[in-house]
């Protein structure tokens, strides 16, 4: 038993939450994968479930292995990782014009998922190295350029991921001590410019031949969210998700008894939260929300206890990106946001996105192990200190 616990070192709360999320994932994916298997042709729900289960197991292995590495090593690796991420993002745009790199008979992945984790670690490194110059305009511009390059490359094909990455790193910049005046003014300028451009595009429309080829899709999604209308001849996945949630009620219809998952091509990915609500009701919805909130709280606690700036910022950034992504997915499922295409971390059907976010959890656990080790060492040193003489 002790050998097993030695493998799963780090923050016990995060390990427990990840375990529960992965169990929920296995159940929910198996329950909702049917239509996807049928649409692929030649596949079966069982075959896709086994593939997903293999990714989950591989993610456990990745977390365990990464958590054994001294987290300071990732500061050095992040420099190379950043260059590789930018190159991959540029290559996928140049060769495919999309977001996927496909190596036939081997692997298919999104470079943006790699960049999501690598950029957070790299930004934490820059903020740590430049701690004494954090307030200077030069440091702020450097960080903006580093984050902006990745965000723009991702933005061309994936707006929601670009915003998620940028805002996470931007909040990290504030936590890292950049000048608040520069930070606030730049944020307001970006919101103003972005809002103005979107308003013009929304009013006048955007050509599919423009640089932002997916802009018409983004505008259509926002328009559909702002002006919902149920057309019996054209039922959308958002409509089906709403019906699934309504059917779930308070306690749900029971695990495996979903009806609406059979009608949605993305029931196992983007809208898996709606299927969870259908089967387990609002009780299940609140449990999942609570799990992600507890995960974020555990990350905040680790970041607070960590004495090193790099470790603290890295954990804070990774915790934020996972929590924000979860919130976006859940908000979309219940109709509080337009459709974004963000998966539910550690629950949606597994792929490289599942694995790469798992690597992020491994880095968090690496920091947690170091924090726990240092706290134990300090406690041991205090207990070995000779007692001071008492003057009578």
Structural account:
The chain is an all-alpha fold. The protein has one domain. 70% of the residues lie in helices and 2% in strands. It is built from 14 helices and two strands; from the N terminus they run H-H-H-H-H-E-E-H-H-H-H-H-H-H-H-H. Strands 1-2 form a two-stranded antiparallel sheet.
Q: What tags apply to this protein structure?
A:
single chain; mainly alpha
What is the C-alpha radius of gyration, as a whole number of Å? Answer: 23 Å
Query: What's the β-strand tally?
Result: 2
User: Largest sheet at a glance?
Assistant: 2 strands, antiparallel
The arrangement of helices and strands along the chain is HHHHHEEHHHHHHHHH
Instruction: Label the structural class.
Output: mainly alpha
Question: What oligomeric state do the depicted chains represent?
Answer: single chain
Quick summary:
This protein has helices at 2-7, 12-32, 34-40, 45-67, 73-95, 111-129, 137-155, 159-175, 180-204, 215-226, 237-248, 272-305, 309-333, 352-384, and strands at 101-103, 107-109. It has 392 residues and is mostly helical.
Topology, element by element:
Blueprint: H1 2-7, H2 12-32, H3 34-40, H4 45-67, H5 73-95, E1 101-103, E2 107-109, H6 111-129, H7 137-155, H8 159-175, H9 180-204, H10 215-226, H11 237-248, H12 272-305, H13 309-333, H14 352-384
Antiparallel strand pairs: 1-2
